Amino acid sequence: MRRRTFIQSAVATAAVISLPRRQAFAAVFRSRSPGLADVEAVTGDGERIVLSEKSIADLKAQLRGRLLLAGNEGYDQARTILNPSFDKRPALVVQPTGVADIRTAVSYARENKGLLLAVKCGGHSASGQSTCDKGMQIDLSHFRDVRVDPIARRAWVTGGSLLGQVDHEAMSHGLVTTLGTVSHTGVGGLVTGGGFGRVARRFGLSVDNLVSVNVVTADGEFRRASATENQDLFWGVRGGGGNFGIVTSFEFQLHPMQRQVLAGAIVYPISKAKEALTVLAEYGPQVPDELDLGLVMSIEAGGKPGVVLFPVCYSGPVSEADKVFAPLRKLGTPLNDSIKAVDYVAVQRSGDVSDPRAQGQYLKSGFVPTIPADLVSAIVDRFEGHPARGTAVFFQQGGGAIARVPAGDTAFAQREVQANMLCAVDWKFGEDASAHIKWIKDYWAPLDRFTTGFYVNDVGDRTNSEVIANYRRNHERLVAAKNKYDPKNLFRLNANVKPTGAKA
Question: pTM, whole model, 2 decimals?
């Protein structure tokens, strides 16, 4: 057998030597690319196409990073996102190691009739849009780097980086910027949608701290965007999601902040839910910018007693802390009060999930301008918890510095809202999800009338008219940017801004 292999190898080598240099290289490449074949795929419009073996081989030859097909080692890990109920199988997965690979992948998708294209950073897309069936997934998990200049108070972050990397590097210099609440979230997905976080009331949303971005747009071109360059693109990526291309680098303004904050939660029995929601409604708009105040009402699976809690993160003067927390401690004796001095980076990791692919989840959400008594009653009176699985209602606070930015300054439009209200149900992965999803939809229906738009990072089954309404007066300007940078709607797996003439 070894002799036969040696002879075959020698014949192949002789054949290659006899070819011109360019053909020889191609022959060697083909000999090292076993398993390639034509692959069935779909375009963004749903048209069935076939990606030829030759085109796939050519794509692979141009990449420094990996190209994965079904059956390749690493394919299943790449295609899987945080919520495993989105079990999708891309025709191709590209794992870029640099901007050149991203440009190559985007150009390949565009040139193949607008191949359906998904972009994955941390895989946290609540609606599963960082993966796809029979399209191309660009997985940025091999494109992560953070560089901090403590003198200029700037951070340069590559597009696939995770929030925790930025917090770790910046806080080592006593600096911070607003970046989410779970450290393994991808920077690209979080920031382009707006970017809430534990210091957003103090320093603004993530988009309010952007100085510049580098973007690969649908034509495969590399563009820098800032207040002075490609201003329309810079405006659009600050809240317009992934509609215009792939952000390959973010430049953030950093702010001095002490490393230790006061954080934890005050937990009450669920019988205190109405009182707790009333406190959030009345006290929430009054809290200092340094306080991030949330509320969670939950019942776990298995019939355990429900709870309502105030998760907090306070970065203001310690001498003022008791006064700041006092209204949250007036509901009687709590089940637990865990507020204490904690390292901010540790707080940012406190919401991490050690096994993020263990359970399925379905989410409904919407912004609420206020929390009136009727909404409080609608939330509490019907909340008994899913009979089989855990359910939760939670609020992420707005206000403060977020509200002081005019709605037209960035694509993110909901500056005036008090909070983002979310309802979620989860189940053990592998179970039939239909009953769980129906339960949360039925529970959410009476709450929806209290909302005004939605956070695009939570986008799920939203109609085109809902997306248009959500962007408000900013929508027309977003369409103009879409027409310029992505006229064929290559980047559509998002809260999609449709270019002029696209199908509704």
Answer: 0.90
